[in-house]
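// run 5 | inverse folding | seed 20
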């Protein structure tokens, strides 16, 4: 299973509460923070919800 590196690149100030909670669930709390997750439908759905705030890098 592939892993995904997710990095927060934009601020969470002024975004809706549900998107802030999604960032928290991904483990992102500050700009520049990077986390790794296994690729699964739940994580991909969360990334889709906050794609304008994060950058994604796929690793095989």
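// decoded
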């Amino acid at each position: 299973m592939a892993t995904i590196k997710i990095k927060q690149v934009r601020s969470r100030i002024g975004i809706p509460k549900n998107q802030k909670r999604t960032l928290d669930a991904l483990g992102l709390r500050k700009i520049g923070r990077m986390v790794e997750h296994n690729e699964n439908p739940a994580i991909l759905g969360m990334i889709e919800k906050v794609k304008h705030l994060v950058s994604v890098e796929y690793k095989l």
